[in-house]
Amino acid sequence: VEPGETAFRFLDRLASMRGLFLTTDPSGVLIAHRLGREGAFAELVEGKNILSGACQISDVSAFSAGQVIGQQRGDDQTDGDTARKPAAAVEWGEFGRYKNKLIFPENPGDSNELRIRADHMRRVDMAAKVEASIVVQGWLAPRGDLWAIRKLVRVRSPMLVLDKTLAVARVHFTQDNDTGTRTTLTLIRPDAMGMT
């Protein structure tokens, strides 16, 4: 633990080096998970169950490539350049311009560990490309469960220029006398949350 480091920052630092994502379950228990596959939890369709929405699609803060350059601990089998120059590189492949991101890992690691960290960096960076905020009536998803984070949602909205599966990143429940019971869902790319 570094001086002044919060508990969450410490856990996040360790999780990033291992390609893990930190989330919580509905009762607040911390969950660390890797890339997984899940089916769509619900479908949101313009004119059917979307009350309102906004979508930001941007590549301003996104990168086209990234490098992780670090060091690893030396021992009798690992020394010299092998210990002081491990590196890993990834390419996003979705942008027409070159914009490189260089990071230094949170902890020492070999080339395989840095490759995991580089891939994690790519997925997190891709989250900035698409973020939608969609309001639906009620607190329950079509299957009757409460809306929850880490669920895949198929969004079909010509006005938001979306016809893709996104992941629920945040859920905000509201209730008042004017609009009744509503849920605001913040949706991002599934790979940014370790989902496909």
Structure description:
The chain has helices at about 5-15, 80-85, 110-125; strands at about 20-25, 30-35, 40-45, 50-55, 65-70, 85-90, 100-105, 130-135, 150-155, 160-175, 180-190. It has about 200 residues and is α+β, with helices and mostly antiparallel strands. The strands form three sheets. The protein has a six-stranded mixed beta sheet, with no helix packed on it. The model has no long low-confidence stretch (mean pLDDT about 80).
Task: State the helical fraction.
Answer: 10-25%
Sheet with the most strands: spatial strand order = 3-9-10-11-8-4
- What's the gyration radius in Å? 20 Å
Average pLDDT confidence is 82
The total beta strand count reads 11
Q: What shape does the CA trace take?
A: elongated
**In terms of structural class, how would the helical and strand content be classed?**
alpha+beta
Largest sheet: 6 strands, mixed
**Strand percentage:** 35-45%
Number of helices, counting only DSSP H or I runs of 4 residues or more = 3
Uncertain stretches of 5 or more adjacent residues: none
> What letter string, H or E per element, gives the SSE order?
HEEEEEHEEHEEEE
The CA-CA distance between the termini, in Å, is: 32 Å
Task: Name the descriptors.
196 residues; alpha+beta; 3-stranded mixed β-sheet; 3 helices
Outline of the structure:
With 196 residues, this protein is α+β, with helices and mostly antiparallel strands. The chain has helices at 7-17, 81-84, 111-126, and strands spanning 21-24, 30-33, 40-45, 52-57, 65-69, 87-91, 100-103, 130-137, 152-157, 162-176, 180-188.
